[in-house]
Automatic annotation (TrEMBL):
Record-linked PROSITE patterns: ABC_TM1 (PS50928)
Protein name, per record: L-arabinose transport system permease protein AraQ
UniProt subcellular location: Cell membrane
UniProt keyword annotations, A-Z: Cell membrane, Membrane, Transmembrane, Transmembrane helix, Transport
A Pfam family this chain is assigned to: BPD_transp_1
The UniProt record lists the keyword GTP-binding: no
ABC transmembrane type-1 domain residues: 75-264
Classification of source organism: Bacteria, Bacillati, Bacillota, Bacilli, Bacillales
InterPro entries in the cross-refs: MetI-like (IPR000515), MetI-like_sf (IPR035906)
Recorded name of the encoding gene: araQ_75
Similarity remark: Belongs to the binding-protein-dependent transport system permease family.
Record bears the keyword Membrane: yes
Transmembrane segments: 12-34, 79-103, 110-131, 143-164, 185-207, 246-264
Membrane disposition: Multi-pass membrane protein
Length: 279
């Protein structure tokens, strides 16, 4: 079907408006992070060019984040927790999906149903019993307490399973006939074919962990293990709100996932679009 030429300008206008709706708040946060605290809301009413273009640029908010707020440690904590979740989470999810697809065992369907159920249940439902379990293990206020509960991700297992179902079973059967072990098939044959879904799953885990707020807030008490989303809530105090530092922290929190996602977006889209589709 030929596209109506009159609809093309409308589509571009709609895309521009949607882009402005998404980018304007982020642009305001960037501009506000470069302003002194007492000038952030000075040009809000009426709205003018000064609202989005600072007349006095200062990097004091960013300097304060790392010199007074300890954002160096916070940034390391968030990055470390996210990377460990990605690496170990991908191994666990891919091995679980491999077992669901290629092994026959009693209760396989029921167990996979429970895996699907895990990413449909709101986290708030399991927060209290999960805290009690982690507390009994002595993991409160530790990296283990933040990382371990999120390692097994039901959605990632589902993505891997759907991808494995599309792989030709003749490939596995021929490898078994040649005497290859299951681990060699998994590590040497299956995983090299899983680059698109691995990138997609890794990005999902990384972004989810980077934006995680509730569980790190519950599982940590000291500043030594604080992550960036929890740290952003510290700028609102009983007597004042440090808006310029908050906006600077928001820009840093947004910038890292964007820098990770942009060079890998092609693999991310292909992995999500092709998972579960038959060729």
């Amino acid at each position: 079907m030929k596209r109506n030429k009159g609809s093309i300008p409308v589509m571009y206008i709609a895309h521009i408006l949607l882009g402005l709706i998404i980018l304007l708040p982020l642009g305001f946060a960037l501009v506000s992070s470069l302003r002194p605290l007492d000038e952030i809301f000075r040009y809000m009413s009426p709205v003018s060019w000064r609202t989005f273009i600072p007349t006095h640029i200062t990097f004091d908010a960013y300097v304060s984040l790392f010199t007074e707020r300890g954002f160096g440690r916070i940034f390391f904590n968030t990055f470390y927790v996210s990377i460990v979740n990605v690496v170990i989470g991908l191994v666990i999810a891919s091995m679980a999906a491999f077992a669901f697809v290629y092994f026959e065992f009693r209760g396989r369907t029921l167990l996979f149903f429970l895996v699907i159920l895990t990413f449909m249940i709101p986290f708030e439902v399991i927060a209290i019993p999960l805290y009690g379990l982690v507390d009994k293990l002595g993991w409160i206020d530790t990296y283990s307490g933040i990382i371990v509960p999120g390692l097994a991700n039901g959605l990632v297992i589902f993505l891997y399973r759907q991808f494995f179902l599309d792989l030709p079973k003749a490939l596995i059967e021929s490898a078994r006939i040649d005497g290859a072990s299951w681990f060699k098939i998994y590590a040497g044959i299956i995983l090299p074919l899983c680059k698109p879904v691995t990138v997609s799953a890794g990005l999902l885990i990384f972004i989810h962990q980077w934006e995680s707020f509730m569980w790190p807030l519950i599982a940590t008490r000291s500043k030594a293990y604080k992550v960036i989303q929890v740290a952003l809530s510290d700028f609102v105090t009983e007597f004042a709100t440090y808006w310029n530092e908050m906006f600077a922290g928001i820009i840093i929190a947004v910038l890292v996932p964007v820098l990770v996602l942009l060079p890998l977006q092609r693999y991310f889209v292909n992995g999500i679009a092709n998972t579960g589709s038959k060729e």
